[in-house]
Amino acid sequence: MTLSAEQQAEIDAARANPQPTLRAVAPGMEKHLYTAQPVLDHGFVRAIDYMGDDAAIVQAARVSYGAGTKHVSNDEGLIRYLMRHWHSTPFEMCEIKLHVKLPVFVARQWIRHRTANVNEYSARYSILDREFYIPEPAQLAAQSTVNNQGRGAVLEGAEAARVLALLKSDAAQMYDHYEEMLSQDDQQGLARELARMNLPMNIYTQWYWKTDLHNLFHFLRLRADAHAQYEIRVYAEAIAAMVADWVPLAFGAFEDYRMGGVTLSGKAIDVLKRMLKGEEVTRESSGMSIGEWREFKGVWK
């Protein structure tokens, strides 16, 4: 992980100067504020600011639904009810702002979540650092033979060494050419906004990313899942650890109903009913495709 001297100075100054406040404070998140959590080889995630806590979710729900929720005996029960029945608005009352340093190819995957406010480091105005994501050997894998979007067997021996050498040499050469093309040292060169187009996708960028808890849970459900690409999953896991400390009741419900739960299709429910009655159901008699049947079997083993 690499923090600039200016970023570290900002962190030290902020943590050394706590301010009194009348707003809701989540002790679990306070310990994370400004502290950078390392991710990958040069990346990090750090919480810059947040709003709300578990109580804010409950408060919003009771304003919204009024007497209809008064039978819920406690805050945890209400939060679990909201999560179980997909009532999303109360979770939108909590927000978080993160500073993230990540490879460009991860950022391009991440930005598909269009429910956040983002401000990214601009290579039009600034020169990017010579920092690239180089996978650990365990992450150098071949294409999966059963999943067009996934990885298969880990590369070994000479093949792993060959690929790793290409990644390192290509990144170094592209950055060398980037520096040579820039308008500097009395040469005319290219403008920064043009010179950047030759940089590799594994170079690091940074951004501020602000979102509400409902949309953050959606991000985590997809990106902290075991099937997500490793390079974005480790960021999601680092964020999830912060969220668990920030809103422990909401995160517990999220783990149960979203991360630990499953959604079954009408066909799948029908097959389960037939199985419970003792019928032997095959893929052919289920009405499911091969992929649906494989995923269904993966749920009930």
UniProtKB/TrEMBL annotation:
Keywords: FAD, Flavoprotein, Methyltransferase, NADP, Nucleotide biosynthesis, Transferase. Binds 4 FAD per tetramer. Each FAD binding site is formed by three monomers. This is Flavin-dependent thymidylate synthase. Catalyzes the reductive methylation of 2'-deoxyuridine-5'-monophosphate (dUMP) to 2'-deoxythymidine-5'-monophosphate (dTMP) while utilizing 5,10-methylenetetrahydrofolate (mTHF) as the methyl donor, and NADPH and FADH(2) as the reductant. DUMP binds at Q109, W110, I111, R112, E120, Y121, S122, A123, R124, R196, R223. Its cofactor is FAD. FAD binds at T89, R112, H113, R114, E120, D212, L213, H214, H218. It is an enzyme of class 2 (transferase). GO terms for molecular function: flavin adenine dinucleotide binding; NADPH binding; thymidylate synthase (FAD) activity; thymidylate synthase activity. Belongs to the thymidylate synthase ThyX family. Its EC number is 2.1.1.148. SUPFAM superfamilies: Thymidylate synthase-complementing protein Thy1. Homotetramer. HAMAP family: ThyX (MF_01408). Pathway: Pyrimidine metabolism; dTTP biosynthesis. PROSITE patterns: THYX. It catalyses: dUMP + (6R)-5,10-methylene-5,6,7,8-tetrahydrofolate + NADPH + H(+) = dTMP + (6S)-5,6,7,8-tetrahydrofolate + NADP(+). One of its GO terms (biological process) is dTMP biosynthetic process. The active site is at R223 (involved in ionization of n3 of dump, leading to its activation). InterPro entries: Thymidylate_synthase_ThyX, Thymidylate_synthase_ThyX_sf.
